[in-house]
Amino acid sequence: MKLTFSTALAGSLAVMLGFAAPAFADIKIGATLSETGPASFLGDPEAKTLKMLVDELNAKGGVLGEKIELIVYDDGGDPNKARTFATRLIEDDEVVAVIGGTTTGTSMAIIPVVEDAEIPFISLAGAIEIIDPVKPFTFKTPHTDRMACAKIFEDMKKQGYTKIGMISGSDGFGASMHKQCLKIVGDYGIEVLADETYGPTDADMTPQLTNIKGNAAIQAILNPGFGQGPAIVTRNYAQLAIKLPLYQSHGVASDSFIELAGPAAAEGIRLPGTALLVASLLPDSDPQRSVVVAYKEAYEKATGKPVSTFGGYGHDAFRILVDALNRAGKADPAAIRDAIESTSKLVGTTGTVTMSPEDHLGLDLTAFRMLEIRDGKWKIVE
Fold first, then answer.
1. Residue 356 belongs to domain spanning
2. Which CATH number fits the domain that encloses residue 325?
3. DSSP state, residue 56
4. Given CA atoms 87, 88, 94, 95 in this order, what sign does their dihedral have?
5. Where is the secretion signal located (predicted)?
6. What is the dihedral angle through the alpha carbons of 376, 176, 144, 311, rounded to the nearest 10 degrees?
7. Parallel/antiparallel/unpaired status of strands 121-123 and 369-374
8. Do 103 and 65 lie in a common domain?
9. Are residues 243 and 324 in the same domain?
10. DSSP 8-state secondary structure symbol assigned to residue 188
């Protein structure tokens, strides 16, 4: 509201004083992100990415002959705040699209608001429930938790592991991925012999890991989770000298996870990740190489910080939205929605996106790379 009032006031003063009114952005895009709070390691790079890309686009003339105005609210990871901010973006700020929902919880809180208002929404969270079942105005950029489970189980099957233990976070992301993994694990001939959980504020997972370690039949461990939890699991796993292979989720696919867990403790961990984490290792023939390298270099120059998978989700959401605006030919929410749904072969940091009325993600398992931590760095293992 303050920005809108200031814009109107400046225009009025310019007219009264006989000056030409300054040009202001005509296409408003909203975002509600977890820039602070427990999910800030996700939301902060998302916000920085969106602001950087908007500045870059506006410097080149914007889109459809207009500049983009980005309005960002920090929901701190609170679903109630996310719902409130989504309502404000639509009713007060009059945005034509919303990006955000850093977490599954905030995304699920935003969905009823955008669906009721018929405003296109691109979520940056992982749970499959965000787009399954398909909702007319809701899309997302991260691979789903079910896809992550499938990628991990593919690798486990390849390694000959048939009996595993699970230790999952009870937060929205962890609970959702845990549920999805259990749904499909049998398809890969794998049996879950231990199924432990931990809370988002727990500081020690030694008891749960001790239970898993005590089952001699277990061949590997899977930890669906994000945030601080998986780093604590990893440290406790090393402290207990557990020799079983440890798999983490794509929810911790960033350099910050290695720093939090400690390179020594994280050594050998595998997880499904994006091309962005291994940009320099991609061959020139890889269609994603130029996109991920360009984003990585721009982000690190602009922020002085390492690029992350999560900022990449914001990058892809913005690219999808701008591509849709160009194809729609107008900043109309319904037209933008239709254009997003018809996105075809758009190369992003998460993969090559082709959406349809039945698929509001547009990615398959080939978009994931199985990665391993070696000497404190990410390596491609397939």
1. 2-143+292-367
2. 3.40.50.2300
3. H
4. negative
5. 1-25
6. -50
7. unpaired
8. yes
9. no
10. G
Domain for residue 237, yes or no?
yes
- Give the pLDDT confidence score for residue 226 in this predicted structure: 86
**Digit-coded pLDDT (tens) for 239-262:** 999 999 999 999 898 888 999 999
Nearest to 112 by CA among 70, 67, 80: 80
Domain membership flag for residue 374: no
Largest CA distance in the chain: 83
Asked if 236 and 209 count as a contact pair (C-beta separation under 8 A), the reply is: yes
Return the structure tokens found at 331.
Answer: 């900043």
Tell me how far apart the alpha carbons of residues 123 and 118 are, in angstroms, rounded to a whole number. 15
Same domain, 257 and 237: yes
Q: Is 143 helix (H, G, I), strand (E, B) or coil?
A: coil
Residue 280 lies in a domain: no
31 residue type, one letter? A
Q: Are residues 89 and 44 in the same domain?
A: yes
Q: 3-state DSSP helix/strand/coil percent for the chain, to nearest 5? A: 50, 20, 35
| Two tokens, residue 360 | 């509001």
3-state secondary structure of 160: coil
Indicate the SS3 state at residue 25: coil
CB count within 10 Å of CB 2 equals: 6
Kindly give the residue spans of alpha helices, DSSP state H, lying in the chain: 2-16, 40-59, 79-91, 104-117, 145-159, 172-184, 206-213, 228-239, 255-261, 263-266, 289-303, 309-328, 333-341
pLDDT at 179 over 50: yes
- Distances in Å between the Cα of 267 and the Cα atoms of 160, 164, 193, 236, 242 are 21, 19, 24, 13, 12
Instruction: Answer yes or no: is 233 within a domain.
Output: yes
Q: Are residues 134 and 164 in the same domain?
A: no
Query: Residue 329 in contact with residue 335, Cβ under 8 Å?
Result: yes
Task: Please tell me the distance from the alpha carbon of residue 86 to that of residue 32, in angstroms, as a whole number.
Answer: 7
Cα–Cα dist 379/285, whole Å: 18
Number of Cβ within a 10 Å radius of residue 18: 6
Alpha-helix residue ranges (DSSP H) falling in 35-128: 40-59, 79-91, 104-117
- Per-residue pLDDT of 253-300, as tens digits, reads 888 899 999 999 999 999 999 999 999 999 999 999 999 999 999 999
Q: How many other C-beta atoms can be found within 10 angstroms of the C-beta atom of residue 303?
A: 16
